[in-house]
Amino acid sequence: MTPIEMSVLTTTSRRGMTRARRRDRRVYFVSHPLLYGLVTMTAGFRRLSIGRTLVVNDPKMMWDIMTKADLNRTGKRTTGQFIQEHYGSGGLFDESGQDHRRHRSQFKQNLSHAALPAVLADGNRLLDESMTSLAEGNSVDIVTLTRQMAGVTARRLIDLDIDPLLLAQAAEAAAAEAARAHLRRARTDGTSYDDLLTLVGGDLEAAVLAVTAVNTTIAAIPRAVAWCSDADLWSDASKRPIAVAAELLRVIAPSPVLPRVMAGPLRTPAINVRSGQRVLLMTRNAARTAGSGGPYPRFSQESASVRAQQLVFGVGPHACPGQALAVAQLAAVLETLAPLRPRVVSAKVDRQSALPAWRSLVVQAAPHHPSSIPVSIA
User: Fold this and answer.
1) Which end of the chain is more exposed for a tag (fewer CB within 10 A), N or C?
2) CA distance from start to end of the chain
């Protein structure tokens, strides 16, 4: 049993966990009912064929596809296809081969642990200001705060002088439009992406990066804060913010489904997939199967926990280069909030978002929180 498990088993109530799970399920059910149905109804199957689409829930199968498969990045109903169809090539998700590897290497360097303090600096200042207000007895909307933080972080990543709030709002609208095209098979004229492209001066790479960074951040942080509050994980968040952040990201899985198209066949002891087959990688189900349904998996070895946490970000050549940024940003939020032990007083689901997310999540400091203001983490 790991130190994290031992701590949580003594500090987290079963009632708190049930409350956290119930609130988080509401996000799925209200904002994305079709996705919720797909995720829940297929959860009991390791793999399941629905027409010509293969749904994969098994962690080992998913790991093999991510690390060993040759994927068609512009296949039917992929993000790459949407970008090429509306805007041409050069949008990161439509790249393959050397171009894809070169950009991934560049992003990993820009988002390395050494670079993270500078990337997160502006967002951390916003975080400190909001926490000061919270400590003074005011309510704080975590979604509004997260949107502001996501905007300033995305602006720094794309290195353009843009109003961060406008950037975040435009990125949200563009992602919602793409989601409607993908998940609901609705037609779209690309208006929201055009608005975002205009805002970033026609830089398609910057637009796609902003969409990815902003929407995953807004989907992840408020949900994680709600879970931490409902399950009362603030003590752990104060002592081990990085570990708690990584575990909560496994549990909430901001991107619950990854649609992929096979560019070639894959045959392993775990799975057999044909060339051209559409695959839905159910990251939420796989990560929870690999763990306990959490947070906090019941693994005998720490390495197994790390593998489960990794699934929600992808692995191997298809791993998200922003994983370290996502964990560090959430850890900063949880660590700063922890001394105030905030509780959720109001929560409304976003019915238009690209990913399961809250439209507002208002919190207040616990009645008997320490009087001292949290120390700046900038």
Assistant:
1) N
2) 34
Domains of the chain: 3-68+102-163+205-257+284-364 (1.10.630.10)
Length of the chain: 378
Q: Is the peptide bond before 295 cis (omega within 30 degrees of 0)?
A: yes
Per-residue pLDDT tens for 310-359? 888 888 777 788 888 999 999 999 999 999 999 999 999 999 999 999 99
DSSP classification of residue 14: H
- Long-range (24+ apart) CB contacts under 8 A made by 196-205 are 196/170, 196/171, 197/87, 199/162, 199/166, 199/167, 199/170, 200/158, 200/160, 200/162, 200/167, 201/160, 203/158, 203/160, 204/83, 204/87, 204/88, 204/90, 204/91, 205/90, 205/91, 205/92, 205/103
**According to the 3-state scheme, what is the secondary structure of 251-271?**
HHCCCCCEEEEECCCEECCCC
Our CA dihedral for 217, 113, 307, 59, rounded to 10 degrees, sits at 40
Smallest CA-to-CA distance from 241 within 321, 302, 328 is with: 328
As given in the structure block, the two tokens for residue 217 are 């951040």
Which one-letter DSSP state was computed for residue 339? Answer: G
Contact 129, 144 (CB under 8 A): no
Which has the higher per-residue pLDDT, 112 or 53? 53
